[in-house]
Structures are given as C-alpha cells and as structure tokens.
Amino acid sequence: MPSFADVQTSNATYAPSYVPVAVFTGGTSGIGKAMAEAFARYTKGRAHIIIIGRNRAAGEAIIASFPKPTDTKDGWKHEFVSCDAALMSNIRSTCADLIDRLPRINYLVLAAGYASATSTEKTSEGLDRQLALRYYSRYVFISSLLPLLIKAHESGQDARVMSVLGGGRGSSYPVDLSDLGLEKARSKTFGFGAAKTAFQSPGYNDMMVVYFASKNPSIAFTHIFPGIVKTPAWQTGLDFGWFFKPLTWILLAILGPFYVTAEFCAEHMLYALLDREKGVFFRNDTGDIVGSHVFDQSHLHIYDSDSDSPTYEKKGLIDGTPVAGYGGSDMGVRLLNLHTEEVIKT
C-alpha cells in the first residue's frame, strides 16, 4: 500500500505530451468533483476536462476554479455538460454530442451515483433509480463512448475507464442471476429491494468491466472501491426515514471516525486511474490492485456464446482463471450483458 505522500508524488509526475481529454460523470459533487479538481491541478489546467452532471451552477463554479494555462492555443478546454444520468435517453443524447465534437477520450470516470436504504423509486423510463445510476447509466456511457476511447488508443495515447463503486469486494455480494434487474427483490417487504440493490450493484459493475475489457483488451477497465468517503451520497444512503432517524444518527456517529474526505480519496482514485496497465482491474480504496486479468486479444471469449466449459458457472473466475476480489462468473457476464442490452434498448 503506497503512502499518501507517495500517491501525491506519483500523481505529480503525470505530464503527457498531448492534451488529455477526461470526462467525469457525477463531477459536481463528492468523489467525481474531487477527482476532476485533482486532475485539473496536476495537469495545471492543460487538459480538456468535461464535467457531466445536473447542477450547472455547481459545475461552472468548479470549472472557474481550475488553473488556466497561459497558452490559449494549446487545445485545452474546461466545460460543463448538463445531463441527468438517471435517464438512458439523456445519456445517449449527451454521448452523441460528445462523439460528434471530440477527437478522442483518454479517461472516462464514472462516479455519478445514488444510494438509498429504503427507496425503490422508478425513473420515467421504468428503471429502479438506484440501479439506473449505479449500473445501467455506466454501461450506456461506456458502450456509447467506446469509439472515442478506441481512437485515443489508436493514437498511441492512454485509454482508460474507471467505475467508482465497490471494486474488489464482489465476492462478498454475488449477483443474483435469477433476479437480474431486482424486480423480485423490490416486490418484497420494506427496504429489502433497496438494500439488495445497494449491495449487489458492485457485482453488476464487476461483470460490466469484465465484459467490456474482454471486447477491448487494449483499454484499461477498472472498478474501484473508494472506501467510506464523507459525501452527501453517504448520508442519503443511510437515511432510513423519519421514524428510524435515530438509527441514521447512530450509524453516522459510528462510521464518523472511518470517513475520509473526498479530496483524500480522489488522490488514490487518480493514482489508480493513471496506472499504465491494460486489462480489467479491481482495486481498493488506496488504489492497490486486488485482482486483475489481461485478455488474449486473439481469443474468442466465451461471453459470445453459451459454453460447455466446466468452469462456465463457477464464481470468482474470469475466462476460467481465478481472480481475487471478483465474485462474478463467465455465465454471469453473458447473462447480465444480455439482460442489460434488452433493458436499455431504444
């Protein structure tokens, strides 16, 4: 585990020869905001930074605080893009605009999220709001923006995707493949569906990054656990309603000593993002690799079709290889991908 000083020193060495393009979803608060700010600081503003979120005033205030290079012809740019990521139609529209006007994307950071211990609210598109923000939206962002990440790689530049949620912990909460989308869970008693969504969505992200990495082995896909971070989302996630408000206060008091600030967390997240490895990675709150797998570019992966492999259904394996911190299975990757493509289709 690197010390915090070592992490900062490593981040400070980042000095690409080109102007990097970095997209941060959920960039107006919490971890996403802190990562965008850290990236701007280490690049001294010499980057094309795109913050995607709902709060324009907050986004523009963050951008105004970024350092501004003196060379106005260097290609750097800082911008806010308005998008409610709970709706897949909004994401598609936003991504279509980015595809039209960006030459490439070097870093795609997915940090927009929502947590609730009680709510099973649905969006206007009929998706569970929590699962929409913690999983489906991330899938749509990646699948839509892949052409720009591929262009970055083809230009000899970094091409990396990071999903910030619960990497390296999937083996603790394996996905229920008999209830993908968690409709059955939400039909049960108070709070059960919301809690199951919160616990299983990291497993959805695990299998999501495995799927995309298997199809794009030259791009790094990371699912990372940020730790217990003092953000508005944490307090929302521990809100059990007015009747159980004392329980919320107790939990917040117990967890208080373990919280880190978003700024502290962002240094470790950025440290992991700037790692030059390729493949699929599961990382912890200090940016250390818990488990990883590099795909053979010439191999036809079993996610393309049903398999008679004896390890097809076994959890904790990627393409038949055991990977620490991973709770999915090759069958799970295929089934989840089929489910997701059906859910998000237009």
From TrEMBL:
The record, for InterPro entries, names: NAD(P)-bd_dom_sf, SDR_fam, Sec_Metab_Biosynth_Oxidored
* Official protein name in the record: NAD(P)-binding protein
Q: Name one GO molecular function term.
A: oxidoreductase activity
Q: Which UniProt keywords apply?
A: Oxidoreductase
